[in-house]
Amino acid sequence: MFINGEWVDAQGGATFDVTNPATGEKIGEMPDGAAADAELAIQAADAAFAGWSTTTAYARADILMRAWQLMNDQADELAHLMTMEQGKPLKAARFEVGYGADFLRWFAEEARRITGQWLPSSRPDQRFLSVRQPVGVVAAITPWNYPISMLTRKMGPALAAGCTMVLKPAEATPLCAKAIFEILAEAGVPAGVMNMVTAQDPVPIGDIFTSDRRVKKLTFTGSTAVGKMLAGKAAASLQRVSVELGGHAPFIVYPDADPEQAAKGAAALKFLNSGQACISPNRLYVHRDAADAFIGTLTKRVSALQTGNGMHDGVGVGPLVNAAAVEKVAAQVEDARSKGAGIPVGGYRMTEGDLCDGHFYAPTLLTDVTPDMTVYREETFGPVAPVVVYDDVDQVIELANDTHYGLAAYVYTQNLKTAISAFEALRFGIVGINDVNPTSAAVPFGGMNDSGLGREGGHEGLDEYLETKTAGISLR
Ligand code: ADP
After folding, report:
1. Which end of the chain has less neighbouring CB within 10 Å, N or C?
2. pLDDT confidence tier of residue 396, bands split at 50, 70 and 90
3. Residue 356 falls in the annotated catalytic set
4. Cβ-contact 194, 2 below 8 angstroms
């Protein structure tokens, strides 16, 4: 663990193993921390806050830029580590390292634009000044599916704002987190500013993070159930909260869309990270006029995907994170099958040859999907593309909005009016219009309803780490 600028063991001395989801092999071990370790980390972050929050924005920006450069210099090593620990194919891991690094650069630039306002008063002898200051110690809990970019998306703005942080990375991917902390230390982040506690059991750490009065903000990315629970606890301490949670993205193909282009987009997007992404499409609504061409192209594309160890050339789909994830996907597919779904491709676990030691599920296409199927309502987090054919263009937005989630949605159309109307009517925080990657460090990312609170990235991403303070000044 990394506490007050030192690499330390858990106070209890315990460790836990980290394994490769493609092979089942042990690839490392990390300290198994507990509540007392989390408290030490908070103490270090609290002690470092006075110094860090009063450094100049220029100094903080320089450190962030150095970290950005180091991430780029080490992109290959980081990508290899990510593929080994998390499973995504090497090319996707390289992409994530670049995306993750970009948050450090974006927020390095934004650090120097934290400004205030000089405001009018009704009294001639009074002036108002409002400034923005860092909120204080931030507690962060991150997931395993994007084990580097989900960290830098929180660290970038926290460091830029002048906050200090305690982070607990996901138990499945602590080695990627360790590599990022090594980079931050090398870039010159002072002792105590960034701290990391690793643990196999997240519960006691989450309890301390949400109850310690020194922690002023909780930022969490993960499942809706855990996010709601932690936000509830943080509310009791009146901590500021941002939570980026699950999704159930609709992907709408209008009758005027190019169905092949849309199918290529759906295939590229759905199987990214083996479907383990909160913005992964979960309901593909295709107009009947476009259905044959769309399903035909998608079937070909999905059949051509190569599944296996992400280290191997040509592999486009890696393993799922663990056995429970495979179980969940298999159960959703069996439920859909039993209720009448067609399965032109996939629909089975992959256990032949080398794959038997990993957690693999075949890229799967489901057709004739209906609202009574679990896959229509619950997040799959796996390589399954459920297609729903619709007839009424005027009703499709209503269908798309019929979910408790509200993170990402996708629209394919050649008609500008249709695109803009859909964008405005969809109750989702992020909408891809003929586009499968509507994300960037420069734009706000986040969801509505059960998909979370707050935004990460963009100018808004920095606001989450700032507190506004007002001065009334008498000229009398
Ligand atoms: P997923 O289903 O994607 O693994 P989780 O919400 O379970 O999503 O995990 C996301 C992060 O939340 C991980 O770092 C995990 O350790 C942490 N986490 C899970 N349960 C709890 C909990 N009860 N208290 C605090 N953190 C938790």
Report:
1. C
2. very high
3. no
4. yes
